[in-house]
Amino acid sequence: MDNLILSEIENNVLTITLNRFDKKNALNTVMYQTLCETFNHAQTNASIHCVLIQGNEHCFCAGNDLADFLQHADSQEELAAFAFVKTLASFTKPIVAAVAGPAVGIGTTMLLHCDMVFSTADAKFKLPFSQLGLCPEAASSVLLPLRIGHNKAFELLVLGDLFTGQQAYNYGIVNAICLADELLLTAKKSAKYIASLPADATQTSRALMKQATQSQVLSAIEKEGAEFARLVKTDTCKKILASFFN
């Protein structure tokens, strides 16, 4: 279970690498807790000006580890995923992401909190919440409609249609499309350049850009969390999730 999340600081950039490739970087409780700790450290470390989150040139994140998720779903404690979402939404420094392969569920919704997203053209994005008997999370119920309009957001969030990195670029979710062997280097160069700019100016600019929606985002996370916690305990959701292990 060790080293599922790697982190490295260089040139004022904290690079976070999801490192569970045998499970397509599906996130479990330990990984969420480590991500929270790592982002909290970045928040308070003045030498970190930008965060880069990545997998490798073939895989970003296949969403929640369903076995781990089921194990903790009936707990009265807040799911670790929601603690991570709150940490991400409250983070005040620029975030860059590099996406290849699967970007499922939280693997897509976390990108809505990033400032620059680079992707391969054939990356596979999917938001299968309704198909699992669940609802959106990470304030995606607010952020995605704001980004691409209600109708297209409904198609992606409720119908759960798969879409590619190229489509994500067309929708404005992704900044640029890269070849697989250039993805990580391109994202790293972008993060390094952002980190080289005056930190106070970049963080102030970012905060100003988010001020109109920040309270709405935090409110949405709370409402989504309550509905998600309710839905995950329904017979419908339990049966759907259990079917993956039968």
TrEMBL record:
Coiled coil spans: none
Alphabetized CDD domains for the sequence: crotonase-like (cd06558)
Pfam families from the UniProt entry: ECH_1
Record flagged with keyword Isomerase: yes
InterPro entries xrefs: ClpP/crotonase-like_dom_sf (IPR029045), ECH/Chromodomain_protein (IPR051053), Enoyl-CoA_hydra/iso (IPR001753)
The organism's place on the tree of life at top rank: Bacteria
Protein name as annotated: Enoyl-CoA hydratase-related protein
SUPFAM superfamilies named among the record's database cross-references: ClpP/crotonase
Biological source species: Thalassotalea castellviae
The keyword Isomerase is annotated on this UniProt entry: yes
Subcellular location: Peroxisome
Keywords, sorted A to Z: Isomerase, Peroxisome
